[in-house]
Every structure is written in C-alpha cells, then in structure tokens.
Amino acid sequence: MKDDRIGVGVIGASTDGTWGGQAHLPALDALPGFKTVAVSTTRQTSASETAERFAIPHAFTDPYELASHPDVDLVTIAVKVPEHDRLVRTALQAGKHVYCEFPLGRTTEEAAGLLRAAEERGVRHFAGLQARANPALAYVKDLLADGYVGDVLAVHCNYALPLFPARSKQIKQSRTYMLDETNGANQFTITAGHLLDGLTYLLGTFSDVSGILATQSERIKVVETGETVRATSPDHVVVNAISANGAIVTAQIRNTYKGSLSIEINGTEGDLTLLSKENFMFQIDTFIVKGARGGEDFAELPVPAQYDRPAASPLQPGPAFNVAQLYAQIYSDLLHNTNRAPDFRTAAAVHELLDQVRKAAETGTARKIKR
C-alpha cells in the first residue's frame, strides 16, 4: 500500500460485458483510496485492451503473475464460479488480501475450504455480497433496529427476474454454464443467495426454512448455435422461513419477461416497503423506501445522505454502485483493521443456508437451522 492507496489486481475484467469490467473497474475508478494496478484475462489482447481503456499499468494472462506483483495489495476474483477455488488459492499463495465474488465456491465444502485456507494464510478476505452495502438496506436495517415497525411479524418478497431463460427458452453461449447445477452458479445460488443474505442482514438468522426448487424449462436453445442444452439447475425458487425473532418470511423468485422486485416488512406498529427502481437484480438495484405507522398511508422515507458514502457518489445506479459502496467498507477494514465488509465467513454461512433450503426442498419438510 502506497500513500494509503490500495493497489488492486482484478482477475476477469475484459471490456466485452464481463462483471469485472462492468462493475469492479468503474467502482475502483470512483474511489480515491484504490488504484487498479493490474488486470488479468484469458487473452493478452483483451487484457491489454482493458488496461488501455482504464489506464491500468499491468496486463497479464497468468493470474499468479498478477497476484505476485509487488504493487498488488488486494486481488479481486471476478470470473465464473467454477474458477473461484483455483484463483482464490492463487491469491492466497501469493500472500495477498482477496475479494471474491459470490457464490464463493461451487459447493459449501469448497467455500468452507477457501475460508480455512484464507484464515490459515492470515490475510484479509472479502466476499461480493454487495447488497449489505446498499444504502437503502442499511437505512431499513437501522429503522428496524430503532423500532419503526415494532416487532417484525412478516416479510414478503416478490421477485420476478427477466435475466434467466425460463420464459424465452434461449440463452447466450457464454451463459450456458449456468444451466448445469454442478457449476454452482444459477437462479438458486446467485439470485436466492444474494436475496437470503440481504434478508438475514436485515432480520438476523433464520431458525426454520422450507423451500421449493423447480426446473420449469429443461431444454434451452443456444442463441449463437441453435443447439439445445439440457438445464439441471433450478429456475424457480420459493423459500419460506422463520427468523430467530419469530417473523414469518416468504420469498418467490421466478422468471418473467418484465422484472419486478419488492420487499414488504410488517410489524406490530407499522410497515416498511423496499421498491426497486430498476427491477433488475436485488444486489444491484437501488430502492425507494416507504413506511406507514399507526394506520397512516405509506409515504416515502428518503434515504439520508450519510448512508451513501461520498466516495461512491459520482456513480450512477447500476452494476458498479453497490460494488463501490462495498469497496469503501473494504478500504476502511484494511486501513483500520475493522470488520464491516462481508467476508468468506459471511459467504460460507449463506452457502450453508442454501444447503438447508435445498435439503428442505428435496425432503418436502421444514429444516431447523442450527446456530
């Protein structure tokens, strides 16, 4: 770290629509405490193009070269889930702090192994559960803690996602890996994983869960080739839960042509709603917060300015916004040895929760969550 600026090396950040290029590089550019010093992709051409576009001094195809470079303090892994284990271990081998996107691994066992490896190496580790850094969610969390709704009785999430191919029954070649459940990247692990993490962030842990996981479209056409691929991963997810404080939680995630996303929280003294502005994805979207108490009509509760970290304010809502908010937490953690940002332990807990939902769906019975 030089002059309190953290040098970041991003693995997986080409300019052709990758998550690293869409979210991480613009987020890092907006934050004065970071400097992107290296980028790595599978092709030197794309690595060099990204480096030139974002004025990054080093471009690699070898992830270990990036991780071991002396200017790199933090390695960001922004590639497909099946590559997470190998690349996180590459960063750990180089002794660098590491940020990995969620899901952390293809399985809970893989995620737990990465947590152990990171803790044994003694480096700081962070997970891309950026909804926890969303200003609106942080505000609602504080409203709940301050008793705005009284005791929380019920929470309902309506989540209609236009990104997955169950309705259109076609998919781009680059995303076909998401149809294979063994790859650990699908509607359940990504969409439900981020949502359930956000709900437990707001409400605390769950004591019981039940669920339905369905693959409603088993044959999907590949746009570029016309071939048909068989899907084994869930495309429709229903989760019911009871929070440790007794609130009944329901969430349905399904595929539609037009997106819709809202969360309603009902309590003994009032109600709160989170209404997505973009209706795109929970971990990316910005939200309108509305509240009502004592029989009053719902009214908007503007998110106070202090919840939006000033360093990220130049960014417009979109993929980079909440990622920048999360990097701001990471900067504080690295500089002051605090623990605000979600880490591999947070991610492993989400993996374990998903396992319980999966087992509940397989058996048709509710599962008790051990704490």
UniProtKB/TrEMBL annotation:
<dbReference type="InterPro" id="IPR000683">
    <property type="entry name" value="Gfo/Idh/MocA-like_OxRdtase_N"/>
</dbReference>
<dbReference type="InterPro" id="IPR055080">
    <property type="entry name" value="Gal80p-like_C"/>
</dbReference>
<dbReference type="Pfam" id="PF22685">
    <property type="entry name" value="Gal80p_C-like"/>
</dbReference>
<feature type="domain" description="Gfo/Idh/MocA-like oxidoreductase N-terminal">
    <location>
        <begin position="7"/>
        <end position="127"/>
    </location>
</feature>
<dbReference type="InterPro" id="IPR036291">
    <property type="entry name" value="NAD(P)-bd_dom_sf"/>
</dbReference>
<feature type="domain" description="Gal80p-like C-terminal">
    <location>
        <begin position="135"/>
        <end position="274"/>
    </location>
</feature>
<keyword id="KW-0560">Oxidoreductase</keyword>
<dbReference type="Pfam" id="PF01408">
    <property type="entry name" value="GFO_IDH_MocA"/>
</dbReference>
<protein>
    <submittedName>
        <fullName>Oxidoreductase</fullName>
    </submittedName>
</protein>
<dbReference type="InterPro" id="IPR050463">
    <property type="entry name" value="Gfo/Idh/MocA_oxidrdct_glycsds"/>
</dbReference>
